[in-house]
Amino acid sequence: MASVSEKIAATREAFGPTLIRLVQQGLDIAVVDADLGVSTTAAAFGKEFPGRFFSVGVAEQNMIGVAAGLAGAGKTVFASSFAVFVPYRCYDQIRISLAYPKANVKLVASHGGLVTGEDGFSAQALEDLTMMCSLPNFSVIFPADVVESARAIEMAAHTPGPFYIRTFRPKIPVIYSDDFRFELGKAHQLRDGRDATIIAVGEMVYIALQAAEKLAAEGVQCRVLNMSSLKPLDERAITAAANETGAIVTAEDHQIRIGLGSMVAQVTAGSHPVPMEFVGVHDRFGESGKWEELLEHFGLTSNAIADAVRKAISRK
Amino acid sequence: MTSTSELSLEALEDVAKRIRRDIVTMIAAANSGHPGGSLSAVEIFVVLYFRIARHDPNKPDWPDRDRVILSKGHATPIIYATLAEAGYFPIDELLTFRQLGTRLQGHITTGTPHGVENTAGSLAQGLPYSIGQALAARMDGRDYRVYCVLGDGELNEGSIWEAAMSASHYRLDNLTAIVDRNHIQNDGFGDETLIPQNQRDEHTGAWVRADGHTANIMSLEPLADKWRAFGWHVEEVDGHDLVALIDALEQAKSVKGQPTVIIAHTTKGKGVSFMENNPVFHARAPSPEQLEQALREIG
User: Fold this and answer.
1) pLDDT, tens digit, for every residue of A249-272?
2) CA atoms within 13 A on the CB side of A197
3) Chain B residues contacting A, CB < 8 Å?
4) A70 and B121 in contact by Cβ < 8 A?
5) Nearest CB to B132; choose among A61, A73, A92
6) A67, A55, A78, A91: which is closest to B130 by C-alpha?
7) What element of type H or E holds B147?
8) What's the gap between Cα A67 and its chain centre?
9) Mean pLDDT over residues B22-37, rounded?
10) pLDDT tens, position by position, B118-175
11) Global pTM?
């Protein structure tokens, strides 16, 4: 069984260093940046490979088109910004220039979710996963820790077609060891139990593990699935969880309407309906605060997950 | 260069005539499509595909081909008719335009059919795409050139100017944009130049045509100054004059250190009297009788 380690890191930190490694391994990568390269860590790549790094200024719409053009000429392209700007500021460009023609462009959107913190609602992307999962041809990944983030970026670089990878800002405990292998379309089971399943994404995965430990202390055994691959979605793992544990709780730093929770519910509704509870943001905007305070304020905590599990089990 | 680069001026004029016939015919067959902005761009496309651009219909993925990017992606008839005429696919296929199951979708999509470089339909995405292609040429040390055909209506989009800024920032002298300056966009006249009778509302400043149609949708002038201010070399030509277009495009090749924009002054619906300068034919198919008249007029 996995448990959280002492080491902490932010998933965004994987971006620049991973791309540098990939170019050193021979990949023909170009990076397009919209004046947030220091925060996304794209700037580290630009420093190492200035001939492969293109700043377009604060111009996300142009960034997507430039990325599409580079991809059309055979490059493996990474474009990055904050999740509130990509996809929000350039969704039309993403749809037309990337999704439909299956452009080989990987969008790495950092600072996703409430945990962006003090900058408040305008900086807190809470709908981006819905937007990106809605687009045909896109693969969508929300890694749980810095190791998975690096592996997902490597996998995307080696897989043709458009990707959206959401990363976040706060340093959280590292879950995976360096030999972790990321598989697109596969949920990763971190813990098993027969009473209920917690399905989580992003930083909520380690919080879900904390919840599972608390519940175990009172005799409730939970399966914990990291559903980092939101699209393609591991429908078999979801159906198996419904079948074998009889109750599901989802946890996401995102709107619960048409987010992870509703995607999971859509699968169980069609295969094996079970009681479900949804931990996430309930049709509200975010606000300023420290990220830990915000998770508490919005009910995205291990206690909230544990309560939701008890409730779902009581409805069996 | 392909063998088409040897075509005489007279031969190019014949090609233009055939493309115009194909445009109105395919739109009439589909009973939908955008004739106005296709007919205005005929000479631009003829010159690009049959004189200026390095391309080979038998090698659509040739890495060293020049790229022709159609940013105003609704003008599909002009690019499909040109590609068919150039030998990328059979001319008969034009009659499948906009039909269920066709390769000739209502708006262009990359590689469908071969020869179509980019995906467009929502405006202003071709210029950013062209910049990416031009940057890639640099990265790879290739000498291909990128030609981007823009509508004047789409210059309303802010992202065009994001792109314009970045093209000069990167000193992309391998990029040439051509603006099909026909002064008409979806809802009517783009600016006051062509409005027959207009008056300005004294409160809002908007131009209102006597018949109630919105006019003066968005003024672009002084357009050449705008491009210059964004760091571009500017050429202005009669967009229906083959020689002038060829000269301007050749001239653009010798401009160093900055991108070139050619403002091609054109007539929307050029070659068909009832479509010329008529906003209605931005996106309307001719009736069977109108098609007959159009073909007669084109000759």
Assistant:
1) 999 999 998 899 999 999 999 999
2) 28
3) 63, 109-111, 117-122, 124-137, 139-140, 158-159, 162-163, 165-166, 169-170
4) no
5) A73
6) A67
7) strand B146-151
8) 21
9) 97
10) 999 999 999 999 999 999 999 999 999 999 999 999 999 999 999 999 999 999 999 9
11) 0.95
Instruction: Give me the number of domains chain B comprises.
Output: 1
Task: Write out residues in chain A with pLDDT < 50, as ranges.
Answer: 1
Distance CA B6, CA B1 (A): 9
A264 neighbors A237 (Cβ within 8 angstroms): no
pLDDT at B19 exceeding the cut of 70: yes
Measure the CA–CA gap between B299 and A196, rounded to whole angstroms.
Answer: 76
CATH number at residue B291: 3.40.50.970
Given the cut 0.90, state whether the ipTM is greater than it.
Answer: yes
Q: Judge contact between A90 and A98, C-beta under 8 A.
A: no
Q: Which domain holds residue B166?
A: 3-298
Q: Residue A133, SS3?
A: helix
Residues of A in contact with B121 (CB under 8 A): 96
Chains A, B: CB contacts under 8 A, how many? 111
Residue of A nearest to B66 (CA): A73
Which residues have C-beta within 8 Å of that of residue A210, sequence separation ≥ 6?
Answer: A4, A302
Q: What angle do CA B212, B216, B221 make, to 5 degrees?
A: 170
Contact indicator for A111, A83 with CB cutoff of 8 Å:
yes
Q: For each of the domains in chain A, give its residue range(s) and CATH number, in order of start.
A: 8-173 (3.40.50.970), 188-314 (3.40.50.920)
Q: Do A65 and B129 touch (CB under 8 A)?
A: yes
Residues of chain A with a CB closer than 8 angstroms to some CB in chain B: 30, 32, 51-52, 54, 56-57, 59, 61-75, 77, 92-93, 95-97, 100-101
Is residue B195 predicted with pLDDT exceeding 80? no
